Amino acid sequence: MPFIKYLADWAFQAPRIWFAINVFAFVTLLLVYKSLVTPTKNLDDYVLPNNDLVPVLHTPEEKTSLEKAEGLYDSFFSDDPLQSVEKITTALPPIKYVIKSGDTLARIFSRLGLSKESMYSVLEADQEYLVLDPLQLNDEYEFTLDDQGELVKLTRVIDISKSVSYVRHDNGGFSYEENIKPVTYTQVAVHSEISGNLYLSAQKIGLSEANVSIIYGVLKGRVDFRKDLREGDPFDLILKRGTIDGVQVGEVELEALQMTVQGVTYRAFLHSDGRFYDKDGNSLTPSLRRWPTYKEYRISSSFNNKRLHPITGRPAPHNGVDLATPIGTKILATGDGVVTRVANHRYAGRYIVIDYTGPYGARFLHLSSVLVKKGQKVKRGQVIALSGNTGRTTGAHLHYELHVNGRPVNPMTTKIPTTQSISADAKDEYNKDVVRWVSMMSRENIVNQEDLSVITDED
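Structure (tokenized):
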């Protein structure tokens, strides 16, 4: 028949033969699968053909055990294999850094991988204290970081009795903190004689330049040191030093002195107000000026050492007074002293620090021009700078600080040495000190000059 012949011719063509064979095999396998597997909608009734390898769960307890095992498997082979393991973090040890020549705060922060933003935040907090910048050779700084490598605390070790820190608070800024150890003070009377001149004689027994300057200052009105002194003229001193565990802290302080010149004995005694007086209580040091300018300017921002930051609520003291001085106003030293720092600060601008005789000191910030140098001696009323608008300011002004024993005080209200003699209510205490010091400086109670090392050298 023509149809059968056509079908036979078509089937025996090679490609079509293989296609037919594949279709036949697929249909055959499908029929076999349906005959072996019976579908069910109840998964609990499902049983694998090989029951010897996987047990069938018949009880809730068995199901619970398997679910726990599956959960442990999933947690172990999850994307985060440590999510079920307790994570333990260890605080990084503080990084100690000793200041070397050429160091700047910016270079140190960069070297430690710390951000400029954190440095600026620290400097902003330092504006009212100025203890970090400029850096001092061999000073020790300590950087404490969190586990992300961000700065949380910066500490400067002043000496063994004191360190200051800037600690990061929750709002990202830094707050100032002090750590002060108690100091033990001792006094001793020391005897020496003029050999050459007063300066060389004082240096031989280890007196600091500051103490030598005090001697010159309190006796210069009564003794001509170039003409009156003779070889062998005796002088006696009462010195006080502080120690912690036998190690000296800070400079030795001169509390009393007496010097015999051409048969006349001159004495000077340190009172609690930081000034020197004679035996009768008359002042031997000049008084301080209340204002650092020739005239009184409007106070644009008052002293407030308890001020809080309006946003963070953290301490943000204003340790001086701001005077609304036009740029170029002459700024005066408010006492006799020595310039100890002339520097620039990101926020304080160009500034000067002066140490006066006794416990007093002053700072002058935001200057346009500085007319003195570090180490220079200045006199009360001397023009030392011109006011300006440097640093971070909202307008031209002078920020003026007065310090007593290293602590800022209100320069407009604090009692300063303006009188010429000991007040009546303080005279009894002063007289008792004078009697004690004169007794200590008597020849029966003084040590030889070579024993001064006990007082002036570090143990």
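The chain is about 25% helix and 30% strand. Residues 50-57, 448-459 have pLDDT under 50 and may be disordered.
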